[in-house]
Amino acid sequence: MSNILVAYWTATGNTQAMAVKVAEGANADLKEISEISPEDALQYEKIAFGCPAMGDTFEEAEEFLEWYEQLEAGLEGKKIAIFGSFGWGSGEWMEDWTDRIGQTTAVLFEEPLMANEAPSSDDEDACVSFGQRFSQF
To answer: Which domains does the chain have, with CATH numbers?
Structure first.
């Protein structure tokens, strides 16, 4: 088992494509949230969470939010990263998610990584680089 987890939820496959590349760069275990319990996710030292925007907020991604809320209190002191795709707006949900994390003692890595719609080859390269940097964080 790696000490890094990339856990994601996807609606259209765009965030999954990002997650694959982030995990590749970080040499991390990759799990869709249906494949790992919140308790098992918390066994990792570092977790990169991927969730797309559904409108202006990730909270409309109800399945992810329910899973995330089960482990949120256990993130205290953990190193985490967040990323995801969006189809409209400008990624306001990442600002809300960043603020939410700021209310805990979790340590947020860099600015959130976002891709508009399906990740381009440049976006995929950015995901690999993001993962590499996160593994060194």
So the answer is: 4-136 (3.40.50.360)
